């Protein structure tokens, strides 16, 4: 029943579009991840002078806030990238499994037909030998 749904001709046309869309999403996630890595490096290496801290007491807090945001973005984009890769691999494995199950069912039917034909020929041979 599911094979009829998934073998609908519209899906094959949409698959090309969705593959391009997924590729676009992965590129976007990689760009976001690299930008987050750059931001973390930028704000991790910034040290506020004590003279500057005396003049503007919130400078240190501002830098820490920026560092926190960039680390948050790094974790979110990294996890999204990892989750996307896991989901993509899962879909690939499920597709392969469905194809193998369909081929297994076809081979099983073919073996059953061949067994029935062999039994019929063996019975006919025994009948002719008598």
List descriptors:
130 residues, mainly alpha, 4 helices, 91% helix, 0% strand
Unreliable runs: none
- When the domains are counted, the total is 1
| DSSP E strands, number | 0
- Helices, by number, come to 4
SSE blueprint and pairings:
Blueprint: H1 2-6, H2 9-44, H3 50-55, H4 59-129
Folded structure, characterized:
It is a single chain. The longest helix has 71 residues, at 59-129. Helices cover 91% and strands 0% of the residues. The chain is an all-alpha fold and 130 residues long. It starts with a helix and ends with a helix. The model has no long low-confidence stretch (mean pLDDT 85). It has helices at residues 2-6, 9-44, 50-55, 59-129. The chain has one domain (2-100). The chain crosses the membrane at residues 74-91.
Short description:
The protein is 91% helix and 0% strand.
């Amino acid at each position: 029943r599911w094979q009829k749904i998934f073998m609908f001709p519209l899906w094959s046309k949409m698959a090309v579009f969705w593959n391009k869309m997924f590729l676009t999403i992965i590129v976007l996630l990689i760009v976001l991840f690299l930008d987050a890595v750059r931001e973390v490096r930028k704000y991790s290496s910034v040290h506020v002078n004590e003279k500057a801290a005396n003049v503007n007491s919130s400078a240190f807090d501002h830098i820490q806030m920026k560092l926190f945001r960039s680390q948050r973005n790094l974790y979110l984009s990294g996890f999204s990238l990892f989750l996307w890769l896991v989901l993509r691999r899962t879909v690939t494995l499920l597709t392969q499994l469905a194809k193998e199950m369909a081929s297994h069912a076809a081979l099983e039917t073919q073996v059953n037909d061949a067994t029935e034909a062999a039994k019929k020929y063996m019975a006919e041979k025994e009948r002719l030998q008598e």
